[in-house]
Amino acid sequence: MASVGKAQGMEINGDLRSEEVGITAETSQETRELLGGFKVYKRRWFILSVVCLLNCSNAVQWLSFAPVADQVASYLGASLDQVNWLSLVYMVVAVPFCFITTWMLDTLGLRISLILGSWLNMAGSGLRFLSILSSLPLSVRYFPLLMGGQTLCALAQTFIVFSPTKLAALWFPQHQRATANMIASMSNPIGVLLANIFSPIMVGQDMNIPLMLGIYAIPTVVACILATLGIREGVPPSPPSASAESSNSESFLQGIKLLLMNRAYMILLLCVGCGIALFTCFSTLLEQILCVKGYSNDFAGICGALFILFGVVGAAFLGFYVDRTKKFIEATKISIALCALACIGLAVVSQLRDQKAAVAILCSLFGFFGFSIYPVAMELSVESSYPVGEASSSGLLFISGQIQSIVYMVILQALTQPIADSPFSRCAAGGAEVLSWRVPVLVMAGLFSGGACCFLLFFHTEYRRLRAEADAVVATETGPGRALCSRDME
User: Which residues cross the membrane (predicted)?
Assistant: First the structure.
């Protein structure tokens, strides 16, 4: 086993695997319990898969309309502001309900929260599809009923989006936590990627909105069935790590109080929340920003797809890296600095005509460095605030992003200016005036750069969860037995 010196300190390696302690799959349960060892279960991968499907399908519901905002506005007879609210409602609902769902995750458990979220997600997608059926009365057709379904999906998001950190902490061993969190978290932007690719294809020139909503409802049904029938317990019979044994050792209200008094966590809350908010704004407004300069919906969809695709690649790389090295702070600071530079470049290039290659490359870089921050920052929020419950620490971080998203969306739309003569515009919002996004995108870049500088200069913390686990290993080594970590077993 690794020496005590390796087990302690800020640069904790974390590679205390079964091979290093000489444990085999045949080790008896009684022996593991006697020596205080830990066990992992294969079913954790099934639960992770269900969380990924829920996260992905919910993200598709969120951004269904943004890549085809002008066509949806024309089809519904609504304004672009109303169509933007179909995405913005996710942020509005998240703010009041996130506290409730965070409490549920930390007190009632993972299973109940995921099942309830899956049913809300399915009900919302079904209501969205019903909203466009011509047989319904005019008083409830189209926008009001569509907004009702979107609101249910937004409520489902609050149950689903906090689960990756909780799942990783309760079901995965130390050397797999960041990877599990990355896989579950990145399923959300993959949903955004699918919406960016398939919404323009399905809607097309015929404005086939019903087809799009019907197809997008299918994964929500599958996810609901798998969650309801397949997830039978919220926690494993035996914990996978020392920190999992003491998860939620603080009460919910006491945990919130500790978070608000934690300087490092509050800096993370504001700066990473700012990044989440600006990524949300960028995803929602990308088509409207580009169409003014003559770029088509298809090209905007490709840029959104590159944004997400390279983001998932970057998150996978960084997730595996920090799982091996535990260098959460260094990885986050480097990524956020490079992301700020990409954001500045994109703000400038997006206001130029005939720069498809440059826009596509900068969208890719913005996603690559930006999305990789999110899962690592969620793990960092737990490390800086342990032993506060994982749902509370990651939940407040997400709430910060949602609140700032609402504020930024309102500000950015207010900063737009009508364009009297726009011969190159490809926007088709039913005769509505064309808007200039030059000032809003520059403000976006300024906000992101400010948040990045604040994080680089002021964020410092110790890894509290890793230190607690290292101390537990030391205590066990000096006691009557040795800590064990078994291989995958049922």
Answer: 45-65, 85-105, 112-130, 209-231, 264-286, 298-322, 334-352, 358-376, 435-459
Question: CA–CA separation, 146 vs 50, rounded Å?
Answer: 26
pTM of the predicted model, to two decimals?
0.71
CATH number, residue 135: 1.20.1250.20
Range of the domain at 332: 42-235+248-478
**Which pLDDT tens digits describe the chain residue by residue (490 residues)?**
444 343 334 333 333 333 333 333 333 333 343 334 667 778 889 999 999 999 999 999 988 887 787 788 877 777 777 888 888 888 788 778 877 888 888 778 888 989 999 999 999 999 988 887 755 555 445 678 888 899 999 999 888 887 888 888 888 887 788 788 888 888 888 888 888 788 888 887 667 888 888 899 999 999 999 999 998 887 787 777 666 665 555 667 788 888 889 999 999 999 999 988 888 888 778 888 888 888 887 788 788 888 888 988 998 888 888 888 888 899 999 999 999 999 999 999 988 888 889 999 999 999 899 888 888 888 888 888 888 877 788 888 888 887 888 889 889 888 888 776 666 676 754 455 677 788 889 999 999 999 999 999 999 988 888 887 777 666 655 654 444 444 444 4
The tally of domains found in the chain comes to 1
Q: Is residue 12 part of a domain?
A: no
User: Where does residue 246 rank: exposed (0-12), middle (13-18), buried (19+ CB within 10 A)?
Assistant: middle
